[in-house]
Amino acid sequence: MTGPFAISVDDVRAAQGLISGALARTPCLPAPRLSALTGAEVVVKYETMHATGSFKERGAILKLASLTDDERRRGVIAMSAGNHAQAVAYHAGRLGVPATIVMPDGTPLIKIENTRGYGARVILNGETLAESQAEAKRVAADEGLVFVHPYDDPLIMAGQGTVALEMLEDHPDLDMMVIPLGGGGLGAGCAIAAKAVRPDIDIIGAEAELFASFDNATHGRERPIGGATLAEGIAVKHVGALTLPVVKALFSHIVCVNETQIEDAISIFATWQRVMAEGAGATGLAAMLAEPERFRGKRVGLVLTGGNIDARMLASVMVRALERADRIVSFRITTSDRPGLLGKIATRIGELGANILEVSHGRLFIDVPAKGVSLDVTVETRDAVHARELLETLAREGYSPTRLDPRGLSGA
Predict the structure, then answer these.
(1) In the prediction, which pLDDT does 366 show?
(2) Alpha-carbon distance 402 to 37, whole Å?
(3) What pLDDT, on the 0 to 100 scale, is given for residue 214?
(4) Which helix (H) or strand (E) holds 329?
(5) Under CATH, which architecture does the 57-147 domain have?
(6) What residue ranges of the chain are covered by domains with CATH 3.30.70.260?
(7) Per-residue CA distances from 325 to 22, 94, 281, 387 (Å)
(8) How distant, in Å, are the alpha carbons of 224, 232, 342, 363, 402 from that of 370?
(9) Most buried among 68, 208, 314, 386, by the most CB within 10 A?
(10) In 31-182, where does DSSP find H-type helix?
């Protein structure tokens, strides 16, 4: 250990030299639409552009390059919810190093299949990363494998810290960096590098509210840890022993974001930036949405850490975001049944500028009169104002629409 922390900026600079020939430099580009949304001057570091879709390749390749010939022959093992797994598997395959990855049972299928596709042996074990780590340590001891920790390792930290060096080379006038926090390897490495180059820069952490481990550890809080989060890549119960002192000393603030804010950030990245962001990768933007006053008027570097989101989950998030914005609206019309009713209503909805997505036509419900009909209609609108105008017009014309919530129950 050199200096107060496990690594120094010299270690990060050395890492930059070692990995520059092995990894493509990811772009760090202005994001005018995000700037308009947040009131900050935003640039985004697109770590999604690596071969495995996340920043994890930086630390993984550095660690693997450090192995002795005997260690390469024996092979490596890692525990991961996905991105570290894919990075280790991919670069181990390139270097001819056998790799075993232990993943939690609930890891998204895309990350499991990608890891297997890179040639690694995958073991699904445990509900959490902590349980997966225990299994990985057991297998490592039994089989003589080298354990590659996802964050609490000096080489991993140094490799991840190269993100900050590149950002400040491209945009030396940043006031802030916003960095997702899981175990802290990326955050610690970037904070050490950034503060050495720009001592006055603010480093802001972004954590999932359900896994506010660093917020607890740095402030002596006891928030409950655990739950189903979209940000499974940073769903870490126990922060790193090497990373915690760095976060305590060098981070200005940690923003804890809820699941709705994470969903909104994923949707904004997809619709406004035309880029896929996984839950963990989107937490930086979610933090800016959660505490806009903290960032307004600042030059902010946002690290989009990964884009490995399951397609089904992305579709669900996008639809839910449209529902929250009242761009997808469901309502029920209960009226007397008569020929041409459905066509008449559909025509009127079209005239009002809405697009019908789905219609359920029911006559057999016991709460509907014997000569009546119930129509459940889902439409696409321009925005919340348009949705309200649509429902108000239908009500004035005698259709009495009752708003439905996304579960199909009558809204208040």
Answers:
(1) 44
(2) 33
(3) 96
(4) strand 328-336
(5) 3-Layer(aba) Sandwich (3.40)
(6) 326-404
(7) 43, 45, 22, 10
(8) 52, 50, 17, 8, 20
(9) 208
(10) 32-38, 57-65, 69-74, 83-95, 109-117, 129-143, 154-170
CATH 3.30.70.260 applies to domain 326-404: yes
Amino acid 209: pLDDT: 97
What are the phi and psi torsion angles at 274 (to 5°)?
60, 45
Q: How many separate helices (H) and strands (E) can be counted in the chain? A: 17, 14
Phi, psi of 65 (to 5 degrees): -70, -20
pLDDT of res. 409: 47
Going across the sheet that includes 28-30, the strands are 28-30, 41-46, 299-304, 176-180, 202-208, 253-257
Spans of the chain, pLDDT less than 50: 1, 364-370, 408-412
CATH 3.40.50.1100 in the chain: give the residue spans. 9-55+153-320, 57-147
**Residue 111 DSSP SS3:** helix
Q: Mind listing the pLDDT tens digit for each residue in 364-377?
A: 444 444 456 788 99
CA distance to 199, 256, 266, 318, 390, per residue, from 262 (Å): 30, 10, 6, 12, 30
Q: What are phi and psi of 39, to 5 degrees?
A: 80, 5
Question: Left (φ > 0), alpha (ψ -120 to 50) or beta: where does 100 sit?
Answer: beta
Q: Are the beta carbons of 206 and 255 closer than 8 angstroms?
A: yes
pLDDT at site 66: 95
How many residues are listed for the chain in this entry?
A: 412
- Biggest CA-to-CA distance, the chain: 83
pLDDT value at residue 104: 87
Q: Which fold has domain 9-55+153-320?
A: Rossmann fold (3.40.50)
- Segment (H or E) for 354: none
Q: Do the beta carbons of residue 332 and residue 410 sit within 8 Å?
A: yes
Amino acid 335: pLDDT: 80
Average pLDDT taken over every residue of the chain:
91
